[in-house]
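Researcher: Please translate sequence to C-alpha cells.
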Amino acid sequence: MRKSRKMPQWLLAGTGLLLLGLIVSSCGSDSSSGAANNCSFGRNACQFGCSPELGCVECVGNSDCASGAPVCVLGRCAACAVNADCATGQVCSPATHQCVTGCSTAANCTGAGQGNNNTPLCDTALGACVGCIAAADCADTPARPVCDPTRRQCSECASSANCGVAAPACNLQSGNCEECLVDGNCGVNEVCGPNHQCIPLCTTNANCGNNQGGPVCDTATGACVECVSAADCKNTARPVCSAQQRCAACAANTDCPTATPICNTAVTGAAQGQPSGARCVACIAATDCKDATKPICDAQGICVQCRRNQDCPTTAPTCTNQGVCVAG
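Model: Translation complete:
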C-alpha cells in the first residue's frame, strides 16, 4: 500500500487560486535534476512551464500558440477562450474551447456540433451548452460534485482544496484529483507517471512499460522514456529521438521532405509534459504559405484558401472542410 504523502508547500500555496496567472516559466532547466524538481514530469523538464493545478503546460500566453489554436486556455492552445474569439453566430464551448453553434434552450444541446452527453444544459448567459451551471446540477453525479467554473463540467475538484490526501492535486484540465501532476508531488526516487501516479525510478528496461512513460530506461536520469537514441525508434514514420526523448518524425527542418518542409516541434498531448512527437508540416504560420491562392495556415499545418467563411470573397462565400471557398 502506498504511503500517504504530505502535500508539498508549493502545491498548498496554489490551492484555490486561478491558475492562469500562476503558470511559471522557471522550470528546472535540466531534466536530470531529480524527482524533487517541481517543474518536471517523468524527469523531463516542462518545456513551457508548470503550475500547481495544471502541471506541465504547452503555453503561458497566446503568443505561445499558433493559428488554428491561437488562444492559451488552462495551459493548452485552443480555438477560443470567450465568445468574442469566435465568428458571428458561434460561441466558445467551455467544455472544449472550440467555436460551436450556440443555444437558447436545453433543446438545442443535443445536436452534433452543439452539445453531447457532457453538455446537456444551456447556459443562457453564455449562450453555450454546458455540463453544469451550479453545483446543484451535479447532484446526480456524487463522485463529481463540483461544477468547474471554467469548463462548466461536473468534476471531482475545482481546486486542490477539494481533494484528499491520497490524490491531493487538482488537475484543472480534467477536473480530476490526481496523486501527482509533476515530479515534485512525489517522494524521493519517484517520478510522476503518465497516469498521474508516482512510480519508482528505473534502473533497467525491465522496470519500464507503457504505463511508466515508455519502454526504455534512461539510466542517466532513472526515467522511463520512449527513446534514448534514434536506435530505439523502430517506426519508420517517427525515426528521430527528440530532445524530450520521444520518437518523432523530425527534430529540425532538415529532417523534413520538400512537400512539408517545416518541423513543428510544438505538437503536444500524448502525456502531460511530454510532446507527442514533432511532425513535418507545410506551415506553422501564414507567413509560411507562399502560394497567394492558399494564404492561410490551418490547424493541421496545411496551407489553404480559408478556415472560415469570413476568409472567402463574396463571389464564393462558403468555406468547405477542405479549406476551399465555394459559391454554394
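Researcher: Any highlights?
Model: The two ends are 64 Å apart (CA to CA).
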